Automatic annotation (TrEMBL):
Gene3D superfamilies: Aldolase class I (3.20.20.70). GO terms for molecular function: catalytic activity; iron-sulfur cluster binding; metal ion binding. InterPro entries: Aldolase_TIM, Radical_SAM_PqqE_MftC-like, rSAM, rSAM_sf. This is Radical SAM protein. The lineage of its organism: Bacteria, Bacillati, Actinomycetota, Actinomycetes, Kitasatosporales.
């Protein structure tokens, strides 16, 4: 089935998740999240200068034993999808393979966001259990990769990552994505350094590798506001994406993120919201070694912390916590990818939903 993986509103209308969507639409607490973002560790083997989680890195991890318990608790809570992500590099934790086995055998969909350096060591589990793996590459050549995604010794591991992606493409059951964050950096001497000129080259490489999609995204600042880019940079990106569109087929997509769409619209860094409670916070949550948070946008924000997964069981945290601690009108003035989903859930609550639940096809709302 072909679908738009970024059409988050349509994903609300799936039968298996519909009862909890209705709970969220009623403005009350839900019986449990449908999707959980899980950070196994805050360690990362790269040292990307523009990393939005840079201040949160190397601050701890779950023990392998606790991580295994968390996987069991997610099964117990009837979660439909888990995204292994971070802070750090999720595949750097030796317990992540067991998590994938536990979740996969229980029928829970698994997404993985990775830098790609450790795919080979986790190849069997990724190939067998992952619904999708998205690799953050942000370059089309070894030299540019080294500028924006150096390892901790300042070296480029581009060839290693591309080789790992080629391995996974040959054995995967789920989708493989090549992610390209459009980065601009102002050097101390005033020179503007960017990777934008390699969008087309990277898309061609993604196609050649056997990836299922190529995604471009815009940068965020520390407050998750979209960073504007010079007009000529955006024009260059759009021109290259137009050429890359010729590569599209039933098996390869060019995906434009909502952040890039916002850049084109020049809407600015602020996205006002009139609602005071986030319905999606009843359907998604973030679990990290430093705490359980209302959502990934608030990773590390003590004001959005609802529990401690190191010492507390996830079902207990969910039952006793108030996901309304975050007021979107006040605390989420950045561009949220699920703003439209929140508006739709509001419509569902008023009896104005767009359609009846149809078929299950992608649990990652």
């Amino acid at each position: 089935m072909t679908f738009d993986r970024l059409d988050l509103v349509s994903k609300l209308y799936q039968p298996s998740g519909w009862p909890r969507v209705l709970e969220a639409a009623s403005s009350g607490p839900s019986s449990g999240p449908l999707v959980v973002d899980l950070d196994p560790t805050t360690f990362c083997d790269l040292a990307c200068p523009e990393c939005i989680s840079g201040k949160l890195l190397n601050q701890g991890r779950f023990t392998p034993e606790r991580l295994a318990e968390l996987a069991g608790e997610l099964v117990e809570m009837s979660v439909r999808g888990v995204v292994l992500i971070g802070g750090g590099e999720p595949l750097a934790h030796r317990g992540t393979r067991q998590v994938m086995r536990t979740l996969g055998e229980a029928g829970i969909a698994i997404g993985v966001v990775t830098n790609g350096t450790l795919i080979k060591q986790n190849l069997d589990e990724l190939a067998r259990y992952a619904s999708w793996v998205r690799v953050s590459v942000d370059a089309g050549t070894r030299d540019t990769y080294g500028l924006f995604r150096p390892d901790r010794r300042g070296r480029s591991v581009f060839d290693k990552v591309i080789g790992n992606m080629r391995l996974l493409a040959g054995v995967k059951r789920g989708a493989l994505g090549y992610s390209f964050l459009v980065i601009t950096r102002r050097e101390p001497d005033g020179t503007l350094v960017s990777n934008h000129h390699e969008v087309l080259r990277a898309a061609q490489l993604a196609h050649e590798l056997g990836c299922d999609y190529f995604e471009t995204k815009a940068m965020f600042d520390d407050g998750h506001h979209i960073i504007q880019v010079p007009h000529d940079v955006l024009e260059s990106v759009d021109s290259q994406l137009a050429q890359a569109a010729e590569l599209e087929s039933e098996t390869f997509q060019i995906v434009n993120s909502s952040t890039l769409t916002s850049l084109r619209a020049r809407v600015g860094p602020v996205q006002p919201k009139e609602y005071h409670r986030c319905p999606i916070a009843e359907l998604r949550t973030l679990v990290t070694p430093s705490g359980v948070y209302v959502c990934s946008y608030h990773r590390g924000n003590d004001g959005a912390k609802i529990g401690d997964a190191v010492t507390e069981r996830l079902p207990d945290i969910w039952r006793k916590s108030d996901r309304g601690v975050v007021d979107p009108s006040r605390d989420c003035r950045f561009h949220c990818a699920r703003h439209r989903s929140n508006l739709e859930i509001g419509s569902i609550g008023r009896g104005e939903g767009a359609r009846e639940p149809d078929v299950d096809y992608d649990p990652f709302i």
